[in-house]
Amino acid sequence: MTVPPLPGVHPAWLPPEAFRAAGSRRVLVLTDPVGDLGGEALPGPVADLGGEALPGPVADLGGEALAATVRAEAAEACERHGGAVVAPGEPFDLVLALSSADALPPEAQAVREPEIGAEGFVLARHDDVTVVLADDPAGLLYGWFEVVRLGEAAFGEARPARAHRPALRRRMLDHWDNIDVHPVMGQVERGYSGGSIFWRDGAARGDLARVRAYARLLAATGVNAVAINNVNVHATEARLLTDRLGEVAAIAAELRPYGIRVHLSVNFASPIVLGGLDSADPLDEGVREWWARTTAHVYETIPDFGGYVVKADSEGQPGPFAYGRSHADGANMLADALAPHGGVVFWRAFVYNHRQDWRDRSTDRARAAHDHFAPLDGQFRDNAIVQVKYGPMDFQTREPVSPVIAAMPGTRLAVELQVTQEYTGQQRHVCYLGPMWSEVLGFRFWGPGERTVADVAAGGGLTAVSNVGDDPYWTGHPLAQANLYAFGRLAWAPDLDPAAILDEWIGLTFPGGPGLVRATLHEMMDGSWETYERYTAPLGVGFMVRPGHHYGPDVDGYEYTPWGTYHFADRDGVGVDRTRATGTGYTGQYPAPWSEVYESLAECPDELLLFFHHVPYEHVLQSGSTVVQHIYDTHFAGAEEAAAMRLAWEKLAGSVDEALYARVKERLDEQVRCAEEWRDQVNTYFLRKSGVPDAHGRPIH
């Protein structure tokens, strides 16, 4: 059994029915070299679960576990759906083979490539046989899930051999899970799906079967790394590095069979907090030795450990600034401790002044990451990865792409997304984020033909804050599962069409459902990000949310606070002047042509206008509408579209599982209510500020 039965837990995109096409066939699995190593190390690609070559024993550990998973997956699917796992020499319809396996059948030999590469696979339909060929067991596992994703299409007409390789080497989810329930943030910080799947009652869960099921779901999308605790490392969580390391090892054992390496968020001040030292200075030899010893012990316990995640000198977390050192000094200290073991440190660039004087318009939170990190380009070790949020602020519904991504060509960068919908409806609203992420990953700083954001991230990876909890539907809102699925698929292949990804998710999650289900979910979800944007903060200005929990409208909620999240609405206009000519100079952090585009009031895209410019309410947008009329029109339209989603869903009564239908209906009722509240508060606010009535005479309070 690959995953034990989980009563009451939704199977997400891996229901048993999704395996019917593969499981009803005769399947030949050839992984013999992995199972018969005799203690020898596997080649480097097998060791490469996260991009770094690992020592031989680690390769054995990960390679054999993955090969066993492939065999078990095929056997379970066949047992359920009437197929069979056959022995060499017997007839077969599907072959899953390592390229190094003995006696590859002719059908596999015909599609063999000189080097498929780490985690990659070749898929072909040749002589009425479907072939998956890989150089390592991780690739074979991903190939198996590609066959599952294709269903009967994998066994149809001839399919030319095609190599599938991950575009990004690290595809990681960060869990903001706390061991102890935090008095303000709860069990999972910015989590909207119940408690943690890792931790309960102050310790690792005794039954970790759900962690194994989670690993399986992630592997089916291509995710290969997970950080299992909050980046805000509290006292209890800090001890995972030392005396509670056994709990981390237990979780790693559940993730390993699906090719997922565990990472830990660590407290920069751990030498003081855990080691009894009087300093955490990254240039202090005693501190460096403490980290080297501690890290060596981690790898003795978890040989395939991935590395550390660090939030330092940000929002109260300790960091190298206390010792007059730079972020490069801090990151390199940890990188040096990890290097002998093949590990990496993800050092977050989310660093800004969170005690800003709201009266001071010269300080701009959007500038902070670039100001701190761009001057350090080229100073980071090769296994130190600077993790940059995709936008300069904080996971808003609409932001420009962070200029840091273009400013550090000599540094390995990871781009950070947020699957948990902190500012996009908190999994109470339908908001499919695939189109947003696709737009970000495809953004080109220097024009046609130049590198995309995804190209830059290839060296470091794509990371995201997970949206999973112990809710029966994993993500609270059943339709929010699509965001988790889309993250993994885009991390593997950033050029995929987000509508096609959504279609995959629908087909897997609702196998055999009537065409009405597919059509209705596309109707509801394809444009749901834009719908959410319409009824929330307009034209890229951001925030306008209730302070603290960040749910629902509060136009001035953060306007006079130290957090640096302002819109500067007054009687004359709205927006933040970030130009070089008259504002904070933030536009100058971008390379040409974007520095000129964003600087120009005439050329700045409408959807980002208020992020870059303070303009009068009757300023005419490129669309031909005035700013204030745009605000009125979009907020009325967004609320109407939310109501239309609910009506669309009601058409599916009786076509989907009754309990799932009820959960989604409940969430849609809340979305409609909240969208109307956003509409009325935002429109009323700007009517009262501007004194300009709605041109269509609609009710504004």
UniProtKB/TrEMBL annotation:
User: InterPro entries, per this entry?
Assistant: A-glucoronidase_C_sf, GH, Glyco_hydro_67_aGlcAse, Glyco_hydro_67_C, Glyco_hydro_67_cat, Hex-like_dom2
User: Boundaries of each Glycosyl hydrolase family 67 catalytic domain copy?
Assistant: 163-474
Single GO term (MF): hydrolase activity
Q: List the Pfam families.
A: Glyco_hydro_67C, Glyco_hydro_67M
SUPFAM superfamilies in the record? (Trans)glycosidases (SSF51445), beta-N-acetylhexosaminidase-like domain (SSF55545)
What family classification does the UniProt entry report for this protein?
Belongs to the glycosyl hydrolase 67 family.
Protein name, as recorded? Alpha-glucuronidase family glycosyl hydrolase
Q: Which residues form the Glycosyl hydrolase family 67 C-terminal domain?
A: 475-698
Q: Which organism is it from?
A: Nonomuraea monospora
Keywords for this protein: Carbohydrate metabolism, Glycosidase, Hydrolase, Polysaccharide degradation, Xylan degradation
